[in-house]
Design brief:
Number of helices: 7
Structural class: mainly beta
Number of strands: 40
Radius of gyration: 23 Å
Strand content: 35-45%
Low-confidence stretches: 1-5, 107-123, 532-543
Largest sheet: 7 strands, mixed
Helix content: under 10%
Mean pLDDT: 90
Length: about 550
């Protein structure tokens, strides 16, 4: 499919107007009667403030938007996250707070974030609270998240910005993933990086309960007060910790990939005075190994065997599970870090046809043997699963070299039926990214048969697909797929796409007469789980 002229201006280099009041969408088709709830999404929506412009698409101001589905109707609304960063920028009418790809030089007297740089005792400067990547659920509360120590609580119905939360008040981390996991009890499992804390740099895995004890509800204690550090893993380098965007979990293990895409802490600490942005402090070491860490949830200790693979870059884990004393995990990986470079706005050519991947996103399956026979011959493959071609070969020093099975190329933004998270599964729902970094298709990939189904339409650019199971689901793909679609044809309106997850046929679409932005991640909140702050307070008062 050829890219239309001016596509970049249509979906990247612009500011999107917010619509805080609900707008009724035009529903074409029929939405299943059981389908009620809110699709809540997050992503960059403003790239110019006054005369100043962001350098990178990922730097834009966070714009929350939602599709509320009830009784076969859909209502759309959007609202900018009223972060401290947003408020400072709007008040100054220019960019005064630095983002990852854009270094700002504000008046220190007027900007609460101003701090030129820190020495090693306080290595990392204070980050932006422009939480533009994802939405995190914590019990009845929802937070906009990014990859730093700040998260912002939001009201999922009104998109109102509530309190600012600083992880560092509860755990010693400077960075955190925007892709947490949730266990069967509703606990959040997440991880972050603690940089040069007491002479050590480490990766910290922590757990947040879904609620506080009944005795603390009256005094409005936060669940983060009960945050538990489950385990920490020392970084292989004090001043060059690995970058990571997500991690994996199986029934008994937490999976962390320490990749050779690394943060140079000394460069980051001096970025301001050097006139460099923080993204320039990310360096891919193509000759290094990628280390695979397994942490046993039961003992809260890392598995001692050293597993590694070739240098790679990954952002998204798909799933992980255990089978016959092996941990099987699927990821989307690249051979270098060119993806991030692609999204610098100067690199997004106006006709978009010159924007190509240097590295193709590839879905790979790795298999890690849990029982490593010490008497096994050097050079022998320790994988005993007949269903995969992935290997794990014993090396002379006792380490295990893992080589993957290639499942499928050219897919990104993977999602699954989360009821199968940490379990053996069959289906991946993703976006196809073929000739450019922007998705052109919504894809269902069958791991068992290696076959695919897809949806596409000319001049339509789909977001990450979200799977919603049907109430009577008996099979993994019983449910629907939601994906909001941005269009680059002026006469074509954006819409919420609703697919039958089994057949991948379109059931309905909800067309909205607004200028909708291309977003990043989000989640679906079933109607029974949506509560406003007022409702929650009333319940607590009643108790």
């Amino acid at each position: 499919m050829a890219a239309p002229s001016g596509m970049v201006e249509a979906i990247f280099a612009r500011n999107v107007e917010e619509h805080p009041e609900p707008l009724k969408a035009e529903v074409r088709g029929e939405i299943p009667s059981w389908m009620e709830g809110i699709l809540l999404r997050n992503g960059p929506g403003m790239h110019t403030i006054g005369e100043s412009k962001y350098n990178h698409w990922f730097d834009g101001m966070a714009l929350l938007h939602s599709f509320t589905i009830k009784n076969g109707e859909v209502f759309y609304r959007s609202k900018y996250l009223r972060s401290d960063t947003y408020n400072c920028n709007i008040e100054a009418n220019r960019i005064v707070v630095s983002e990852f790809g854009t270094m700002a030089y504000p008046d220190p007297c007027k900007n609460i974030f101003a701090k030129a740089f820190c020495y090693l005792s306080h290595t990392i400067p204070e980050f932006t609270d422009n939480c533009l990547i994802n939405i995190m659920k914590n019990g009845e509360d929802y937070y906009a998240t990014s990859e730093v120590n700040f998260i912002r609580k939001i009201n999922p119905r009104t998109l109102e910005t509530l309190e600012k939360v600083d992880y560092t008040k509860y755990v010693a981390i400077n960075l955190a993933t925007s892709h947490p996991h949730y266990d069967s009890a509703g606990n959040i499992l997440n991880m972050g990086t603690s940089i040069v804390d007491k002479g050590r740099t480490k990766y910290v895995i922590f757990k947040i309960p879904p609620s506080v004890p009944a005795s603390e509800k009256k005094i409005k204690k936060t669940c983060l007060k009960h945050l538990e550090v489950m385990c920490s893993i020392p970084s292989r380098s004090l001043l060059h910790p690995s970058y990571y965007h997500s991690f994996g979990i199986s029934e008994n293990y937490i999976l962390f990939i320490e990749q050779p895409l690394k943060l140079d802490i000394l460069k980051m600490a001096t970025a301001y005075i050097r006139g460099a942005n923080w993204a320039s402090c990310l360096v891919f070491h193509k000759d290094d190994k990628t280390w695979i860490h397994l942490i046993d949830k039961r003992t809260k200790k890392p598995v001692s065997t050293r597993f590694y693979t070739d240098a790679m870059v990954l952002f998204h884990h798909v799933n992980a599970y255990e089978e016959d004393d092996h941990v099987v995990f699927d990821i989307i990986s690249y051979t270098d870090n060119s993806l991030y470079q692609t999204f610098y706005l100067k690199n997004l050519d106006s006709n978009f046809e010159n924007v190509k991947f240097n590295s193709i996103p590839t879905c790979k399956r790795f298999v890690v043997p849990l029982q490593c026979d010490k008497d096994a011959e050097v050079g022998s493959n320790l994988v005993r699963l007949p269903s995969t071609t992935a290997t794990a070969v014993k090396e002379n020093d006792g380490s295990i070299y893992c080589q993957p099975e290639i499942l499928r190329e050219e897919i990104e933004l993977p999602r699954i039926n989360y009821d199968y998270n940490g379990k053996k599964y069959r289906y991946i729902f993703a976006a196809e990214v073929k000739w450019s970094p922007v998705p052109t298709k919504v894809v269902k990939f069958d791991i068992l048969t290696k076959s695919s189904l897809h949806w596409e339409e000319e001049h339509c650019w789909p977001a990450e697909p979200i799977f919603v199971p049907s109430p009577s689901a008996k099979e993994e793909d019983d449910g629907i797929i939601l994906s909001n679609i941005v269009t680059s044809e002026p006469q074509k309106l954006p819409f919420l796409l609703i697919l039958d997850a089994k057949t991948f046929k379109e059931i309905a679409r909800a067309v909205v007469k607004v200028d909708m932005h291309l977003d990043l991640h989000g989640l679906f909140i079933p109607e029974t789980n949506v509560k406003t702050k007022t409702e929650a307070d009333l319940e607590n008062d009643h108790e």
